[in-house]
Amino acid sequence: MQYRSGSEIREMFLKFFETKGHRRVHSSSLVPANDPTLLFTNAGMNQFKDVFLGLEHRDYNRATTSQKCVRAGGKHNDLENVGFTRRHHTFFEMLGNFSFGDYFKKDAIAYAWELVTSPEWFGIPKDRLYVTIFKGENGAGGSFAVPRDEEAYNLWLAQGVPADRIHEYGSKDNFWQMGDTGPCGPCSEIFYDMGIEAAEVPGVDKAFGQDEARYVEIWNLVFMQFDRNTHGELNLLPKPSIDTGMGLERTAAVLQGKISNFETDLFTPLIEKARLATLSGTTLPLTEDELEASYRIIADHSRAATFLISDGVLPSNEGRGYVLRKIMRRAIRHGRRLGTDKPFLSQMVYAVRDEMWTAYPELALNADRIAQVVLAEEVRFARTLSLGLARLEDALEEVREQQDHAFDIVGSDQLGFDDGYSEAEINEAKEIASRPAILPGAAAFRLYETYGLPFDFILDACHDAKIHLDIEGFERARAEEQARARASWKGGAKQSASPVFRELPKTVFEGYRQLTSTGCEVLAIIKDGQGVKAAAPGDAVEVVLNHTSFYADSGGQIGDTGWLYSDDHNSVVADVSGCTKPVQGVFAHKAILRQPLKIGDKVDTVVDGNFRNATRRNHTGTHLLHAALREVLGTHVKQAGSLVEPNRLRFDFSHFTSIADEELQDIEDLINKEVLGNTRVETIEDVPIDVAINEYHAMALFGEKYGEKVRVVKIGDFSTELCGGTHTGATGEIGVVKLLGEGSVSSGVRRVEAVTGLGALHEFRRDFAVAQLASQLSSSAEISPADALKQKLNAQEEELRKLRRELEQIRMKSAASAVSNAADQAIEVKGIKVLAQRVDSLDRGQMRTLVDNLRQKLGSGVVVLGSAQEEGKVALIVGVTKDLTGKVQAGKIVGQIAKLVGGSGGGRPDMAEAGGKDAGQLDAALGSVPKVVLQFVGE
To answer: Is 26 flagged in the annotation as binding?
Structure first.
């Protein structure tokens, strides 16, 4: 068995299958194209899912790939294990070979055994290999039984695998499915014996199946036969297919004689870079194992972060961006664990680029942009961490206060005082007082999740504060959050298309060159989701034709509208409101019938020319906008989404700051310079994707799914993109492009909206009307109409501010007058003056001011103000003069009062606030203030 580098293994695998007639296919994006059932691409077959389902047809039936994968969320979540095991990763590469209805088990098994064992290829000794098959189970596949895989068993025997090295397992191990729904089938796995030195218990020799550390799965051969629906039922796929997955990292460990994946050349350079990047001179009390785990985590997570950002994911608080943020922050936390508090993860981006750019050239182009995103997140997290530590201290203080309050209640009860507490409240206080102070697990998890505080930080802080941490509650809260995250990605399952769509040939699209197609045959009519042979006037249907001039929703551009005409070319058969692709390549016209229609009829498709022309002006304008943004703002700008309609265009892109007005002006000028140049818009059909990317240098758009042949849209030397949309023949047809403004969509993503053609003309007319109004306000030649309008608006705003201030002063005077003799109304509780007043007319800021004034009038005492707010809510503020905070604290008082109005709150010993939901109990709550103060002062 010869040593092979990770890069050599990847290339050998792909070349082997090319010799077997397979097409080498590029890795797809880590963001699954048009598949809401997946958080990230997590297996090699993801990009071929529609092919397995029969929704898409390609010009090859054998493929091989090295697929980028991430498993850090949803069903496949390895995040918490990474760094502490030999083989768990967030990012990894899956080598695979696929058959789409071509060969099946016999060839798949023969190919696998040849590649793995032949001296010409990997040359792994046969006596170190084991295989598994599906043993069969009743109900393993849902509603009916799937039998033992007798065929696979016999095929392995035929390859010379001894019977005692073929093991059988049930659906948990040997029935594979990508998700809760979709393609699935029995599988057969190849395992490698790492030797007794890799045993789970050092030196203990266990048989296959009893030691997961020693016997490592390196290849899974999935015999794709079924499609599981949302009810768990299995339906046969159109054709049996093959989907295999060989982990590059595991295979590298085998061929390089390493026990751990992290010891291979795929990771050792990154681990060394992590050591250098986190050097701080700080000596931390970590064992060697703990140090190595942190280095492994940084190396692994830097790969995941680099590739995810390269594929368009940005850190955020939801969805994919949230998982990316968790991965990055986990790496940053381990950097701090190693003693560094300075940004370091952004340096790791370049280390990942240097190791992997030959296989993934896009890393060389994107590294600077990726590093900028990572650095921004490191700086943001540093601020968040400081906030989190402050919130942790607040949470610990709240636990201390609860404990102190429980002791006060128990003490008062033991002395026989009647403080108005119910028996249940007294019993609860006794229970709290009888045990150590505990930080609830749910509260700790909120700190962990919201502020990214490491669990170890929280545990150590609790230990220092002599407060116990509810670890079981923490884990329970974490499990509930993971369940919610999984549930959020179960919706929108993509099912197999009904035979009505799936069995139809592709629609020939003729709309690039014409708005009308004649003699189009009706292949299918779908009404209420079911195929019908005929439909009547007034029916809402979807009509599938053998050819059409209608563009279907794709690439951000909405489908055409128009009409279906009868074959005599004179009467309208149906009004078409849009066109979609329910199955790849099949166009469905959404129509309301005016005349009867049946399968086999011939119709003419007539696209609304005004609709199409307005849409293509906006689409070509989008390409110009993308290129201008990159020229003005920088090449880090990448499309993150778009919408092209007849009346506007919307473009989302990666950028980290707002765009200045001057920059927007430059972008608009640059676009319209190209428009005025009337540059030809060239479309080049059926370009091999390698040629499009490497020779034409075409931009591939985020989230789009490309085949082996693509369409290139080229606008002079200004813009070149892969695009299937409709476009103008030259830029001059756009007329003019008017930017309407820009704003933030999410962290690191901005949005620009614009109009073209007649839409732009409408905007200019509206602006002109505003300018005319401004001109009327300008009475001096020395001031421009725009400045005159600004002055007028500023004067009105200042007048409004003045009126608001006067209204607030009136309210304050009224409230002050109402409580002018309030100090005289204060009652004494154990020698302490206590004043409680209701002030419904004041907001919280005014209430704070009044509390300060009343404390001064009292000289020494407690002031409580309550106010009924909008929607039945309550505001409470408590002030305690400084001389009394040793006896009674505002935070404790407000916490007790707030309970009576259905709320909670807290704050400093001298000033505290609370909110509530039951304004009807406000008077009762204020009336209870003396008793509450007595409770804390004691007898």
So the answer is: no
